[in-house]
């Protein structure tokens, strides 16, 4: 019995015959990797200016950059710093590039870290409300899986749709912002400013 014939569409045949697009894609991913390396250095400088974190052992763990091809079938690059992960406790800030979609930054807290920092987060959102300029672009996770980073309604809700309960009641907290890839020239400043804001939300309120 002969194997089924595998055919390519005209578009697929055009792509498989052209190496330029995959080389360009690899070059872009390398640029993102380099950008995240620069961000890692900026993040380390930023946390050192925060007295509450300067001696925190969580921040002594080196940043980690990783990349892959299959987040919902698309390439990605991510930077984790800080990155403390155990079964019961998580303290992480994840910067995420997702091909064809966006760049995003995610604060993830669980266990003892959510108990420690949750009250300050509550006070921040109580102070500025759901519709203020300061808070309007935040998203809260509404999913059961902290490792999903898309912004569909089954994973993230905007702050305007947040139920307003104390974040300390959650099994984990995931707080995020995103920026379109079309705003590439602003991505570095966006990430640095929101990394600093996340650190501030944890301790200043």
Structure, briefly:
The chain has 205 residues and is α+β, with helices and mostly antiparallel strands. Helices cover 34% and strands 25% of the residues.
Structure description:
The protein has 205 residues and is of the alpha+beta class. The protein has one domain (10-203): BirA Bifunctional Protein, domain 2, CATH 3.30.930. Helices cover 34% and strands 25% of the residues. It contains four helices and seven strands; from the N terminus they run ααββββαβββα. It has helices at 10-16, 20-48, 112-128, 187-203, and strands at 64-71, 74-85, 90-98, 102-110, 139-141, 156-158, 173-180. Strands 1-2-3-4-7-5-6 form a seven-stranded antiparallel β-sheet, covered by helices on one side. A hairpin with a 4-residue loop joins strand 2 and strand 3.
What attributes characterize this protein structure?
205 residues; alpha+beta; BirA Bifunctional Protein, domain 2; 7-stranded antiparallel beta sheet; 7 strands; 34% helix
Q: What layout of secondary structure does this protein have?
A:
Blueprint: H1 10-16, H2 20-48, E1 64-71, E2 74-85, E3 90-98, E4 102-110, H3 112-128, E5 139-141, E6 156-158, E7 173-180, H4 187-203
Antiparallel strand pairs: 1-2, 2-3, 3-4, 4-7, 5-6, 5-7
Question: How far apart are the first and last residues' alpha carbons, in Å?
Answer: 71 Å
Category by helix and strand content: alpha+beta
CATH architecture: 2-Layer Sandwich
SS field, number of helical segments: 4
